[in-house]
Specification:
homodimer; mainly alpha; Neurolysin, domain 3; 62% helix
């Protein structure tokens, strides 16, 4: 059992079975959000729980452990010294599988089943509660989920805060202590930036984005942009769902969803570009490693960096619209025929504190994240009771953004995450923004013509650069390693803040757009 | 281990796991036909094979066997004498589970995996070959499938013909010897009936069905009919696919598909009613037995009886259109405003030998089945070589129906069944027609107002009668038992032939419709 090929072959067979179960669950989950009949909710919850439990049980089976233990140092997941000559990809595959195994091993099977079922149910209650603007309806489910997530943190183990155990699920290696200084810096500079926006005398004329735009034509335009980005429709599709998301069942089947509002041009357009960024990551993973960590994304933050890079660094950039704005005008001549490129560019970069995170501009977006993060940290650390969430939410929104929702549906109930048990997920959005700015800055260095290319509608060089630098590696490197490897630097908020400060200066202080 | 509750509880837990795998596979298969991106075919084939193999492996596990063996007579699947006081439903559940177990046990896991993968691939090649009208393209896959099905028959065991092993999969207990006399009677009487149609001087004016009909409006009308039938859209949906089908993942999630052609009114309408009949069966199975044979349909023939009863006995009946024709005229006033009910009724009952089975009238339909059945019997018994299929097909079509396809796409390639390994399935269509006529005849006896109800658009009494007599029982009774129990008779072709002879007489000899 010393040949890496032998270990790998047996390991891959086991992992493939697990992935087949997980990817079946992913299709069930996609279907739940897109096409499932409403009456099937309860059965679907049981079905998802059953598949996830089977996947979990296979992952923690002695077979897998017996395969890994002889070649690894169980404390680190690194191969033992005598195997140090094995290929780096093999070593990474083993290390990441061991990480998955040891984390899963800590969770009892019955707990996994219960968590999955409760989350699937809570998700349906949340959707209803949000529609009814009724936080009380969701409260019992939320309380259950929080208790389960605390229990999960307890099983997983942690230092300092149980939140760290959850955060590590989405962003391996990250802790609250690691996050806080970043967030402090961000908060200070973003609030300064927001004040500078408030003082500006020229304001973008945002109303042009909120005229009536034919929904089919919006979809057609967005599909065209996705195709230009290199999103492969032979291996993907776009559907409608209440909340846009990306899911993958294999690198040859990566699906995005969007929403289309007649009176909100940005909704469909930017959610397609955003999800398209996620989709390119998944389509860029390597088929030949399907089933293993080498064909999985590194972390939620790195995934988000791909969507935010495309949505913001590219999709809200001047060069991008040099090419696409005339096409958009062609699609909507009555609405946009009299609008200049400068006016449009300013409109899509309007900064204005608002209630809904997913529609927030680049300046206030991370302030929304801070609100969520601080509240969920208090929840997991048992420093706040669930009943008080709406008022706590409103206080923090007032403090950070200066706006307060009139309805819980636009406040505490706006996001699905807690309903699906995704505590510890929100900070990865901010990390995604920071990674994105660093990566895009580096892309501009590595590809000196990139902005000229984009201005000509040539988006493939950037896509291929991302394929090469990020996507193809799967989990071979950690997010820290890959950022270091690609940019030569460690993660910092500076590139993001500089990028944003420059853009805001341009939009708010060097033009007249009204 | 002598209490039925104990056996049942443990058994149900095992069976539920198996069903969750199978129903995940069913969703993957539905998705493959409706929304899957084209490039995902290869991965989907692997994925389906993996899930089916896991389900198979769980079914044949010693755990299940150890649970069943102590309480059953392994030769019959009946509970041992000392348990004869157990509830009939419990005994049936055990008997049918034992049947599934013993059949599955005969198939090696690697064989199941290979068969599933080859079928999923062959299905995709078949679709392409049919589009290209290229039998040679499909030939290697078909050859593989036939060899695998022969192998399957060999594993399963049989007397007389390997075909019997396959037929028994779809229609438990049926054999070639059992079928042949039925088919002989049918053939003689149907050919006589066809000659009577040929000699009739009045002919229905079929062209009214082939005008231009807005596709969306067709769908809307069909959905309305489905709702009237009692098909529950809270627990179901309609999608488009190349070939209409019904699938179920749970009684609360039963989906039908249809196709819509602008210039063929019958296509969408009758495939919706047909699939709706299948859908009502699946929606009528009992939730509380989900996962067990008591929440599964009896046989393919009994399933088909439900679809054909609705499609033909109801959907092509005069009372049905007394209610629905005015509504159809309202939906398509330009096309049908000048057509009388009599003309429409005659048009939808036109008898005309044609190439495509699924579009065949009630007289020629079973002749199509005989063509398929005889050919597949020869294939499985190795009495014909695959290369000769197109010419054999054409000869038989000439002999039975008097028509010969110009293209293999309209001939040997028209049906998906062989591509998915469903050898032995075709005869169940004919059995379905025969069961349907017997059941509908009985429904008219049990519910004396049924035709008056239907003529008022009240279809629910019939649906509820079927729920009560057929659906709710699942596999508690065999098809022979249930037909005997509901009608007091054994299966016979007579009710079907009488029903059809009466209708043909009415349409072709007692009116003037041109």
């Amino acid at each position: 059992m010393e040949k890496p090929e032998e270990v790998l072959t047996r390991l891959k067979t086991k992992l493939l079975e697990i992935h087949h179960l997980k990817d079946a669950a992913a299709l069930l989950a996609w279907d739940q959000e897109t096409y499932m009949p409403p009456g099937a909710g309860q059965a679907r919850a049981e079905h998802l729980a059953a598949l996830q439990t089977m996947a979990h049980d296979k992952l923690v089976s002695p077979e897998l452990e017996n395969l890994l233990r002889p070649v690894l140092n169980p404390a680190t997941g690194l191969v033992q010294d005598r195997y140090s000559g094995w290929a780096p990809s093999t070593k990474a595959l083993l290390r990441e599988t061991w990480r998955d195994f040891t984390r899963a091993k800590k969770l009892p099977s019955a707990f996994v089943n219960r968590l999955e079922r409760e989350c699937s149910l809570a998700q349906q209650v949340w959707a209803d509660a949000r529609k009814n603007n009724d936080f009380a309806q969701f409260l019992p489910n939320l309380r259950t989920i929080i208790a389960l997530k605390r229990e999960e943190a307890h099983y997983l183990g942690y230092t300092d805060s149980p939140y760290n155990a959850l955060l590590d699920t989405y962003e391996p290696g990250w802790t609250v202590a690691h996050l806080k200084p970043l967030l402090t810096t961000l908060r200070r500079r973003l609030v300064t930036l927001l004040n500078r926006v408030r003082k500006a005398s020229t304001k973008p004329h945002e109303a042009i984005l909120f005229q009536s735009f034919d929904r089919d034509r919006q979809m057609e335009f967005s599909r065209m942009v996705l195709a230009k980005m290199g999103y492969d429709f032979q291996r993907g599709r776009v559907d409608l769902s209440a909340h846009p998301f990306t899911t993958s069942f294999h690198p040859t089947d990566v699906r995005v969803t969007t929403r289309v509002y007649e009176h909100e041009l940005p909704a469909c357009l930017f959610s397609c570009i955003h999800e398209g960024g996620h989709g390119l990551y998944e389509q860029g993973l390597r088929n030949e490693f399907y089933g293993t960590p080498l064909s999985e994304p590194i972390s939620c933050g790195m995934h988000e960096s791909q969507s935010r890079l495309w949505e913001n660094c590219v999709g809200r950039s001047r060069p991008f619209w040099e090419h696409f704005f005339p096409l958009l005008q062609h699609a909507f001549p009555e609405q946009l025929g009299q609008t200049s490129l400068e006016q449009f560019y300013a409109a899509i970069n309007t900064v204005k504190p608002s209630l809904i995170r997913v529609e927030a501009d680049e300046v206030t977006y991370n302030l929304h994240i801070m609100v969520r993060f601080e509240i969920e940290l208090e929840l997991i650390e048992e420093r706040v009771s669930v009943e008080n969430l709406p008022s706590l939410w409103n206080e923090k929104m007032k403090e950070y953004l200066g706006v307060v929702p009139e309805r819980d549906a636009d406040g505490i109930l706006q996001d699905i995450h807690w309903a699906i048990g995704a505590f510890g997920y929100f900070p990865t959005y901010t990390l995604g923004n920071l990674y994105a700015a660093m990566l895009y800055q580096q892309a501009c260095k590595d590809l000196p013509n990139i902005e000229a290319d984009i201005a000509q509608g040539r988006l493939l060089p950037l896509k291929e650069w991302l394929n090469e630098k990020i996507h193809r590696w799967g989990r071979q490197f950690t997010s820290e390693e890959i950022i270091q490897q690609v940019t030569g630097e460690n993660l910092s908020a500076e590139p993001f803040l500089q990028y944003l400060e420059t853009k805001i200066e341009k939009v708010y202080y060097s033009g007249s757009y009204s």
